[in-house]
Amino acid sequence: xxSVLVNLLKSHxxxxxxxxxxxxxxxxxxxxxxxxxxxSSSFIQCTSIIRITEKNLRTxxxxxxxNQSYIEDCAEFLVFCMDFQRHQSIAPxxxxxxxxxxxxGAIDVSLFAQNVATAAESLGLGIVYxxxxxxxxxxxxxxxxxxxxxxxxxxxCLGFPQQAPEVKPRLPNxxxxxxxxxxxxxxxxLEKYDETLKAYYLERTGNSKSATWSQDIEEKxxxxxxxxxxxxxxxxxxLIY
Length: 241
Ligand SMILES: Cc1cc2nc3c(=O)[nH]c(=O)nc-3n(C[C@H](O)[C@H](O)[C@H](O)COP(=O)(O)O)c2cc1C
Hints:
- The structure is a single chain.
- The protein is an alpha+beta fold.
- Helix content is 44%, strand content 12%.
- Strands 1-2-4-3 form a four-stranded antiparallel sheet, with helices on both faces.
- α2 (25-36) crosses α6.
- The longest helix has 24 residues, at 99-122.
- The chain binds flavin mononucleotide.
């Protein structure tokens, strides 16, 4: 079996160094067209994209997002939001603010964004998602003038790559595909994967480090990430019920 698309998907790696070349407008348009072709739960179409073109605004977003320089350097920076404001305008009596709405919204927006990302990569562009935009959600909502019922989920940098990082090894399928019922973690497979990822980290061209995936996970889950998130969602009208 040979599929150009499957090979493209499997060759994904995040790009954090971009050339100054801008993305032709029709290319970006087509990436958005690919994004909106994604499935949408009950066809709610709740994705909104804030395209940050103003230089000074881009700098401010970068500063609110952990000063990740590629937010400033990339050709295009898109902030993906779940947006139920449209729905409220259409149906002023709409019942909003439910936990399920957050799940539906986050799923819909992610499917849209991943189509954009894949379309971009198919054109030879590089991408990196930016969860860092949730470091200061209240400030970002105010900076981008996001109304109630709109919440920024992640950013996406797009541009022509100026680096060629190696593909990062993923967990083996046997660990993440469970047949019929849930299977407990196979520690032997995990150990093998830890060694594979450690070797990748040591040998990769940029940002070499010595750590296994398990060590990374232990560190990552040692404390709550972004403990202000519930309050930020509440203040935009989400998670009320
Ligand atoms: C929702 C989301 C948020 C992310 N946020 C960031 C980020 O803020 N900064 C960054 O450099 N990479 C970010 N990433 C990229 C991940 O670190 C990256 O996808 C992961 O390490 C796997 O590496 P790869 O994409 O090169 O295969 C994010 C990825 C996702 C899906």
